[in-house]
Design brief:
Length: about 375
């Protein structure tokens, strides 16, 4: 949020807003996208016709999808995979006009650019970004075709029975265009909300690879709660920041926090009621258990999905990063990653910028309410 590939490709930041600055340009264009999604879909389809010759021979092979509840370690996994020369992913430079990557990237490449400097992202978690950093933007596309995905009153699951021909054609063409503009061969994406769409994606791409990061519930909930407080404060003084989060489909925390509805109506309503009544820890704990219980159920019920999924336990990853990075690239079928592993492994470590501030009662409550799902992931 505090850095964008702007019209000129220059870094846009503000030193007075805690990193929650959203430029008028971003706010204006993203507002048009949110208000007129069908028009932007039309522009995307028009662009596909323009790019027909360029993408004619591009095949989508073994796409990689990183999906996990926010704050589970998904960003570092995406950033690592995106370092591979064969990989295409969305970048900060692709926003706002996510629907038209072919024309927009041509424009950005031609536009004069000043010197960019990596800055810490809004999350204040030690991850530095530039306009060329990979980021999760494909949620914008999903929301344009499925208007219920972030409605906690409706089941948000898209499974193997889901059928949306218009989306599927657009999505495949979009991926092919992104592969072309990056000069790559493989697509890698990170989107937290894909946790309830894995089986749909597996139907669309039978050779897909999934990477599912999970994390000890006490530490995970501590990180979620920390981010929620941070974003609530930042969005309170920056209305554009709240609109930005809504338009890019980030409802994980902040003033418009919404739980993912996994099909358990009673639990989703309970989580919302707990949050509204100020019972933050219990709400997060029940939510964590619901999401991970759903995921464990789907992996157990679908052998093909289980085979396609690499579960990355955060604690194991930071303990033995080299081993897990090798497994990551092997699972993704991305060879010759030794140099990347050598460069990234020494930088992986447990978070040193915060610790859980729960008292013994809160910790016990989290352990109790998450136990049924946590044990299924080895916790």
């Amino acid at each position: 949020m505090n850095i964008r590939a702007s019209k000129t490709g220059k870094k846009t930041t503000s030193s007075n807003d805690g990193g929650f600055h959203v430029s008028r340009w971003d706010d204006f264009i993203s507002g048009l996208m949110a208000r007129y999604p069908q028009s932007w879909i039309g522009l995307g389809n028009f662009e596909t016709r323009l790019a027909a010759d360029a993408i004619a021979d591009i095949k989508i092979e073994k796409p990689v999808f990183v999906a996990g509840l926010a704050r589970s370690g998904s960003t570092i996994l995406l950033e690592t995979l995106a370092k591979h020369p064969a990989v295409a992913s969305h970048r900060y430079r692709d926003y706002p006009p996510v629907f038209t990557p072919y024309l927009w990237n041509k424009f950005v490449d031609l536009a004069p650019r000043g010197k960019t400097v990596a800055v810490e992202r809004t999350h204040a978690d030690g991850i530095n970004i530039t306009p060329e950093s990979p980021e999760a933007f494909e949620e914008v596309l999903w929301m344009a075709f499925f208007d219920h995905l972030h409605d906690p009153a409706q089941n948000n699951v898209l499974d193997a029975t889901t059928d949306n021909a218009a989306f599927e054609t657009f999505y495949r063409d979009h991926i092919r265009k992104l592969i072309h503009v990056r000069g790559a061969a493989r697509y890698v994406s990170k989107a937290n909300y894909l946790v309830t769409r894995l089986e749909y994606l597996l139907r669309l791409f039978p050779d897909a690879r999934f990477v599912l990061p999970v994390r000890d519930p006490v530490w995970h909930i501590a990180s979620l709660a920390k981010q929620h407080d941070l974003f609530c404060k930042g969005e309170t003084g920056n209305p554009r920041a709240l609109r930005h989060m809504q338009r890019v489909g980030h409802y994980e925390f902040g003033l418009d926090r919404r739980p993912i509805h996994t099909g358990n109506e009673t639990m989703t309503r309970k989580v919302i009621d707990l949050w509204k009544s100020g019972h933050e820890v219990e709400g997060w704990a029940r939510y964590w258990n619901d999401i991970h219980g759903y995921l464990a159920d789907r992996l157990a019920a679908n052998p093909a999905l289980k085979m396609a999924t690499f579960v990355v336990r955060y604690e194991d990853f930071v303990e033995t990063p080299r081993e897990h990075l090798q497994k990551l690239f092997d699972h993704a079928a991305l060879p010759d990653a030794g140099a990347i592993i050598d460069a990234v492994a020494p930088t992986i470590h447990a978070p040193n910028y915060y610790r859980p501030k729960f008292d013994d009662r809160d910790t016990a409550l989290i352990r109790d309410l998450t136990a049924s799902s946590a044990v299924r992931f080895g916790y």
